[in-house]
Design goal:
Elements lengths: L8 H7 L12 E8 L5 H4 L11 E6 L8 E5 L2 E5 L2 H12 L3 E12 L8 E11 L1
Antiparallel strand pairs: 1-6, 2-3, 2-5, 3-4, 5-6
Length: 130
């Protein structure tokens, strides 16, 4: 491709995905914001410092569930679940083969009742690749 037209490396980098495939017409469609449920800081402590704004995390349907549970994880560690009112739609899109990605928009820890149980508040932005 580079033999036919002289393309600058900056333009080529913008058109290629991380795996090297050229995807000039791909766009991210914003679907929703979500505050994850079921997050405990003790379970995410090992990776909590990696949860920076804009960090892409995995989103998938939870296996072995009759209902539409959607989990969000990083490196195999479950960060939390989507709220039920959003999980139904996102689960259907994932099941239909749509590529769904999500990114951290905010992550912080807190101790609600001054106990030993620290919690994490993790918000994400969900996008569909089209």
């Amino acid at each position: 491709m580079n033999d036919l037209v002289n393309i600058s490396p900056k333009v080529l980098a913008q058109l290629t995905s991380p795996d090297g495939n050229i995807q000039p017409f791909v766009r991210e469609i914003f679907l929703s914001d979500a505050l994850l449920e079921g997050t405990l800081y003790d379970e995410t402590r090992a990776i909590f410092d990696k949860l920076t704004t804009g960090k892409e995390v995995e989103i998938c349907n939870e296996e072995n569930k009759e209902n539409s549970s959607v989990i969000v994880q990083l490196n195999g560690i479950v960060l939390g679940w989507l709220p039920n009112n959003q999980a139904c739609i996102i689960s259907q899109l994932i099941s239909a083969g749509k590529e769904i990605i999500c990114r951290i928009s905010n992550a912080r820890q807190y101790n609600e009742f001054m106990t030993d149980c620290h919690k994490a508040r993790i918000s994400i932005k969900i996008y569909m690749i089209d």
